[in-house]
């Protein structure tokens, strides 16, 4: 799979290229601003774009705007955004149309190389990777609702679901068995009054409700 | 005895004092003279006299009114030039102050000054009588005994005049600046204005400095640390190393990540960049999400407020949430509400703990109060036993 990297700090870009290659991608282009990113995506048609939110010339949200425009023009491109801080509005904008193939992580997470590589692969394969901080921040806004009926443990499980993890990943994170996770998820789905459709769809609905989107 | 230097000093002072007083006589008595005329004219009008009197009265009053600022200026000049005393400009905020001075105190001072100057002249004329009578034609000459009395009297007066002149000068220099100069009230008002301005400048400067440090850390050390941790992570993941080396790299990686966290915390405590770029709302949600207990955040801001106020509000919430996490007993959550009420930004942080917080204690709270007061805000902490603990802060902000 091919990837494009947009990051203005040269130092960090060099490291990012290494990790992205480590994760099994071929780096088609590395650029330092949003315009370069759009051109590179146009030219190389990559499977994944790793994008820094804050880039020249304005150093505000150039990366997010470029990502949204890629999402419209080439929806098949998976996007992983890296940010110095979390702004839940960006996350909401990115997730609004389509929750597959999207990631939003704090920049410092790249240091956990293996987890970051895993997140890259997950996003490129159509999954999601939300920083725990993003999830926590979206929760802060949530008005009172059926989520209040969830136990602390169920809430934890739901938060990990929202980050984009599988049952096995959640079980590993919480150090419980996979069947326990499945039980929690069933409880969550029941408490959130989600329709009896197929499990994956309900899972996505639960996450969306959780994030207040 | 060093009689000559002393005498010279006395003479210098006497010269200065008498010129000061002599100059004061016309400046002080001019208004008295005008007032005397005005009273005369009024008397004339009451008595039903001359029909031109009202016209002349009008002129006299207008002239007196015109004289007021000129006389004030002249008096200030006299004090500055001859005594080196700066009488503050009373300005026109309170014209009656000047008018009152020139019409009442000024006339009294003029009388005193005239008396001193008169005594000096009389003494100077009388002291040498015994000498100058011989220059007169014989029929006009008084006898030498009377002349001697006059000379002695003149010498006595002349001996006393320097002290008297000095006393009057001292009296004027103490009383006039207070009577004619800007009133204490106006002085204080001006001072408050100056202090408010300079304090706002200091607060803004401190804020700008925090922002600059944040930017420097963000563009420099933070990026470098992330890159360092990333490279250590890559080394750990890709290199086939002996266990000891692996352990060292592992520890270095962990420390680099901790350093990133610590630096981020530091930067957030200083002035987070999200505050500048996206405002209070976005910055607070980051803060609330990072709190170790669930926080519900409600922000109702139709527009952004002044950067300094935003920074203080952010700091308030940051400190309050830290306190809740650290001190609130059995708190399971907190509510943060930020709203703009007219020209007042209200920040309320409430937890559901057991209360009983000491509203006076803690350096954190003191620092918070100081920061709030630096922008003229107010802070109230209510923490009854049994809870809840509520901190409410109001920050004035001109939209």
Write up what this structure looks like.
- The complex is a heterodimer of chains A (213) and B (399).
- Chain A is of the alpha/beta class and 213 residues long.
- Chain A has 10 helices and 6 strands.
- Chain A has helices at 10-22, 34-44, 62-73, 88-97, 113-124, 132-141, 152-163, 167-174, 178-191, 199-211, and strands at residues 2-6, 26-31, 48-52, 78-83, 102-106, 128-130.
- The two termini of chain A are 30 Å apart.
- Chain B has a 5-stranded mixed sheet, with helices on one face.
- The radius of gyration of chain B is 40 Å and the shape is elongated.
- Chain B starts with a helix and ends with a strand.
- The A-B interface holds A 9, 11-12, 14-16, 18-19, 22, 60-61, 84-89, 107-108, 110-114, 117, 133, 136-137, 139-142 and B 218, 222-224, 226-227, 229-234, 236-238, 253, 256-257, 260-261, 264, 272-274, 277-278, 282, 285-286, 288-290, 294-297.
Q: Helix count of chain B?
A: 11
Bin the strand percentage of chain B: 5-15%
**pLDDT < 50 runs, ≥5 residues of chain A:** none
Strand content of chain A: 5-15%
Outline of chain B: elongated
Placed side by side, the strands forming the largest sheet of chain B appear as: 1-2-3-5-4
* Order of H and E elements of chain B: HHHHHHHHHEHEEHEE
Biggest sheet overview of chain B: 5 strands, mixed
Largest interface: pair, residues per side: A-B, 32 and 36 residues
- Report the mean per-residue pLDDT of chain A as an integer: 84
Number of strands of chain B: 5
DSSP helix fraction of chain A:
40-55%
| Head-to-tail CA distance between termini of chain A | 30 Å
DSSP summary: helix tally of chain A: 10
Characterize the overall form of chain A.
globular
What is the subunit organization of this protein? heterodimer
What is the succession of H and E elements of chain A?
Answer: EHEHEHEHEHEHHHHH
Q: Give the distance, in angstroms, between the N- and C-terminal Cα atoms of chain B.
A: 75 Å
Structural class of chain B: alpha+beta
The helical percent of chain B reads over 70%
